Each structure stands twice: as structure tokens, then as C-alpha cells.
Structure prediction request, 673 residues.
Amino acid sequence: MISLRPRLGQRWQLLAFIITSGILALTTILGIGCEKADQFFVDLLVLSLGVTSLLPWNFGWQAAANVLMLASLAAFARFSPAHDPLLYTHWVGLVAGAAIRQLCANYGGRYRQEIARDIIELKRSETELIAARESALAASRAKSEFLSSMSHEIRTPMNAVLGMADVLAETDLNTEQRRYLNTIINNGTALLELINDILDLAKVESGRISLESVPFSPREVVERVLETLAIRAHEKRLELVAQIDSAVPELVLGDPFRLRQILINLIGNAVKFTESGHVLVVLQTDPAAAGLLRVEVRDTGIGIPADKLDSLFEPFHQADSSTSRRYGGSGLGLAIVARLVALMGGTTAVESRPGVGSVFRFSVRFALPANPVPYEGLLPDLSNRKILVADHNDANREAVRLLLTERRATVAVANSGKNALELIRRAARESTPFDAIVVDSSMPDLDGCQIAQQAGYAHARFVMMLPGGNLKAETLRLEPLGIANYVLKPVKRNELLAAVASAGQRAATIPVPARREDPQHADAWPGGYRLRILFADDSSDNRALIKAYMKNTPHLIEFAENGKEAISKFMADPYDLVFMDIQMPIVDGYAAVAEIRRWENYMRHQPTPIVALTASADTEAIRRTKEAGCNLHVSKPLKKAILLETIMRCVPQPQAAVPAAPLAHPLPEISTA
Prediction:
């Protein structure tokens, strides 16, 4: 910015002050001696002379201008008629014209040069800023490519190690061998989690994570996360419980993958640091802010000292070194959580008491759909239904009670098997029996099966809550009792309501969706149909792993070692399904898929399902695979169950040696990260 004050300088400011003071003194004397000059005229002259004195002229012009002004003043005061406004105006116009001409000649030319120089400097600075920005973007792209390459180079051997360990686990091993194998699998999985955390933190720190905006159900995300961690919790005999407020929207617009990542970190930590009791997840809305969800993860674990709370969300930090030695972990999970929450417009907080437990809180902000679909009518109405809920765990009992009362049921609760049996018998004596009895199958004093045997109620009224461990063994206990209604813990709202609604019906059916078994043998594939599948992967270990995974299936498997070979094989004889590793030599997966799609379009062939195999499950990787023409995205390491399920999803109908029909809807992404 150009400043006029520095241009004038202190010299001209001082000169202007002296000249103006002299003019004031002189005009005062002239005004006293000349009756023709009134005060208005004197003031006007003083103002004109003062302005002229402040102009940035050199000394010679300044002196000449002031002498001319003083001479004009003296002559005017001596000869002009008093109170002649025309003469006043004419004289002032002459002075102003002279001043403006001199100002343009001296001030304008000089400052045009100054402005031109400033513009040149601004242009030079702008050019330097653009160059610096391009350099920073290039460095960011180089960092991104390096992280992507490192992720691929690390995950590829890890895929082979963990995959072969899974294959080995299916063979006959003695106790000692299986113990060694479990050590390999557990430590390999821990190493993979550490790699994922480091890569995720690097992405967040570099600002490379972008958030999706897709419709999803927050309730479903929470329930699925709990289901994912249920086996780990069951091994420690912990209860996983969700309390989701009925005011939580059924659908929001946002990034479900990142919300899931936050929950996995917090709930996984809670399970890790809790030896007994439960982990409770509370999901609520904020009435004052539409779209703002508040989440609490409460545990009954070891707790955290107060002086360690402030540094919990820093990278590579744990409460103390003994915690790291005993429980493992890198200390990156909470750092990733804090940064993701901030990216989603929320905040994080923690409260804890050693020996009592911890509460981690965070808020995230989502948009709401413009026209939300009403969900109320899709849930069963339990009005006029009297229901008993029996569970020794307070958190789970309260969560189930809330789910039922939200559907207008009348609910009684029991905190033990004996208490439940007493309430059942009292209701029978009073001729107000329960319409449904929701009971935990593993209460310490009387379990659910014992209660059903002693209650004297029709067993069709019972809904058994089963742990998520050995489902087959648990259901075998129910068959002799004729109990067909059950739900798995952690309890999901829709499954519970469906089971309770059907309780008491004669033809009671199991409301829980059938769990698909891993299709490891030929008879697991509908009709025993055979597919021609092409796997393109430059790693010989991964190709050997895929061959081991697929040996008990009827499908014909062929391999390509690079993208160029994959293109040639596909054009020679199209396949029913293609798995394409993205990072391969000669021609990478992106280019190979794009070329296959161009060839299919040119030949007017129906599009073949193509599954991208990548080392990353972030949104950028998924976007690039979709743009290339892939239908599905699977991240490494590739588990056998995921591989076989992916094949069934891509080609669900028996079609022998015929290219798959075009997909009516985009297939969902599958991630094993």
C-alpha cells in the first residue's frame, strides 16, 4: 500500500507549519490595517495557503508558490472592493488551478512511477507464491505417492503371512503347533493394526483425508461396530451394550467409514483395558443443534490417572510405560480419533477414575436429508404388551428396557434369575402373565434355560439373549426346550423388536437373519456352478495364497503377473470375474481396468465385474478405482472369507462360462482394513 505521509517527510511538515503560522500572523496584521478585508476572506486565504504549503513540491517551487500567494494577498487586500464575492471566487479559482497543475506535474508523475514499481513487486510476489504453492502441492503429491507405495509394499507381504497362517489353521495341528500359529496370527494382526494407524495418522496430518457425504444410519454403524468387537469382548466375558436415543435420526448425510473408525478405536480401547463388567456406548442428539450427534463410550476398566488425561490424544502416548508393556498398542488410536472428530466439526473429551473406569465423549456434525423417510411405521407396536427383561448386567438390562418402552410396551425388570422367576410366578398368580420374557442365557444364579424350565410358561413366550461366541452350541441348548426366538448380544433394536413381537405365537420362528457359512466347499455354491476367474497380482506369494484359498471351490482360476498380461488374457477369452491388483509393474491396475472397459465397450460385450485389490481403504483409493471402472474395492490383507463372499456377491446367480450381466446397482465396497 502506498502511503502519502512518508513521501512528504518531516522536513515539509515542519516547513508547512512555519509557513502557515507566518501567514496567520501576516493576515491578522493586514486585516487590522485594511478595513476592506473581512474575516471570511482572511480565513479562505489561510486555508488556500495552508493546502498549497502541504503539497509535496521541491523547495524552489514551494518558496515561489508561497511568495506568489503572499503578494496576491497583499495586492488584493490593498486594491479590491470589500465584500466582493466574485473577486473572492476568482482569486481562489486561480490559486486552486495553479496548485492542481503543479500537483499533477510533480506529484502525479512521481507517484505513477511508484505505483508501477509497487505493481511489479506485487506481480513478482504473486509469481513467487504460485511457485511456492505448486512446490508444496508437488511435495504433498510425492508424500501421498510414497505413503501409498509404502502401504502396498508392507501390506503385500503381510497379506501372504496372515493368509498362509489362516490356510495353515485349517489343517490338522496338535496343541503346541496351534499355539505357535496363534502367536503368529495375533502378532501379525497387531503389526497390521500399527501400520494402519501410522498411515492413517500421516494422512490426517497431511490433510489428505476427505470426508464423504452419503446417507447412512448412525444406529446401524454403532450396532455393526459392536458386532465386530463382540468376539473379542466375549473372550473376556464383557458385555457390549448400545443405548441409542430414539431422537437420533434414522438417516444422516456424512462419512460412515470415518465414524466407524472413531468408534472402533474408542470401543476397541475400552475392551482392551477392561477386565470385567461392560462397555456401554451411548448415542444421543443435541436438541439445540440439528445434525449434531453426541457419543459416549463408558467402560468399567482400569481407569486413567488425572495427570495423564491432557496428553492422551497426543501421538504415541499412553498413560504410562507399564500400560504399553501389558496391553500393547502404539498410542496412535486416540490421536487419530481427535483429529478425525475435529475434521468432522466436533470435539473430544475424557473423564476417568483409576480402578473405576473411563468415559470418552465426542461429538460429530452431520447434515440431515431434505426429505427424510418416516421410520416409525416400520417398527412393531408393542402397546398393551407386558414384557419381563431379566439380565444381571445393569447396562444391558436398561438398554433393552428402553428399546421396549420406546415402542410403548409395559416392562418389568429383574436383575437375577431368581428375581425373574419370582416375578413370573407372581404374575401368574395374579392372572396377569407376561406376553414375552426376554432373558439372558448366562446369568450366574439361574441361566435363561433354567428359568424357562422352572417357570411353567409356554416356552414360545421366551426370547433368549445369547452371547456372541459359539452360536451353534448355544442354539443346541434351546432346541429341547422349544425356544425358537433368540437374539445375539450385543442386542440390535430391529432383531429384538421382531423377536418380542413374534413371542407367544405358535409357529414361532427365529427372527435373526441366517448367518451365511463360509463357502469353503463346492456344495456351498448354488448349483455347483463354475466361474472363470482372473487374478492379476505381481506377487508370487499372493498368487500362491489365492490358489490355496480357492482349492476347495469349483471355479477355474487363472493368474496374470502384471496389467499388460491381464489385458491380453482378458481380450483373448473374457472371464466371469476379475480381481485386479492396483499396483503392478509394466501396466498398473488402473490402466489395465480402463483398457478392459474400453475393449468391452468397443466389442459391445456386457461389463464383467472387476474387483480392485488395493493396500488402502480410504476414499481417495475407492474413488480412483471407481473412475477406472471397477465395481468393487477390497483392501489387503485379503481374508479367505472376504474373498469367497466377494465372489458370491459379484456373481450371485449360476452362470456357466457366460460373462456376467451388467450390474443393476453399484456393489458396496468391502474393506478388511
